[in-house]
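Notebook entry, structure prediction.
Reason for the run: the old model in the group folder had no record of what sequence produced it. Starting over properly, with the input documented here first.
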Amino acid sequence: MNLDTNIDNNTLLKKDNINFKGKLSRWYRFLLTNKGIFFGSLITFIVIFCVVFAPLVTTYDPLKQDITKRLTPPMWQDGGSIEHILGTDSMGRDLLTRIIYGGRFSLLLGLTSVLIALMVGTLFGLITGYYGGFLENILMRIVDIQLGFPFIILVVIILSIAEPTFWVLSALFSLLLWPGYARVVRSILLSEKSAAYVLAAKSLGASDFRIIIIYIARNIIPSMLLMSTMDIATIIITEAMLGFVGLGTPPPAPTWGNIMADGKNYISTAWWVITFPGVAIWITLFGINLFGDNLQQFVNPKLRKKY
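New structure, fully documented this time:
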């Protein structure tokens, strides 16, 4: 009896590996043939490369001031200099350097916040969706309360009593995002846990942990990946907005939001200070959204083509 069970388990595991390799093959063909994915990935890769290897891209210190060169225009404009390609800000700091280092803050904040929200939301969704009962009611009511509380009020309350450091903002954005992940994971799990392959795994004696991680999680990953790309873009633009209105990380630490906030005071005389950080935000969001939108063509069965 034990021998037959082991044979059935090994057969099922081999079939799972074959199906998983087939999915990887389809992913590979999709990434190579979809132009939107290609260009979105390329733009995003260039942005990430610039912010990660900032000392190789620029040699200036983003915090070093030189009042004698304040508000120097871009190099192609009268009075510009090749030393400062995009010009300088009101303190004589190289604008390109501050934009690159500001992008490092924004991207890292987006990745960290989404990762925390993804882990917490997925854990809540898996527990509530698979086990249900009294625990599901309690956890989902917590999600409902969180979703029903206006985010802008929460932002004002927290940032009025706490300094808007990197980790405070990460916790704030994670608090905003995790209920969405919990709801999506729970809905997927509710539809998948009664599927034939899950029932077959249970009949073969597979543990709850194995069923959730090995079998069901494969169907959750694509949706989580799609949500994550969109949420990273949302956090980047939200952080820039908070910085612009003075609720983000305060100067002199460079972020796209506070660079633009400084530039709004000189919009009529030094247009480049507010314009170029906005262009950097647009390029980054364009790359991420282009990747995410085209990724939906693979994740959504209604939009999926044969690859």
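Summary: The chain has one domain: 34-299.
The old model has been moved to the deprecated folder.
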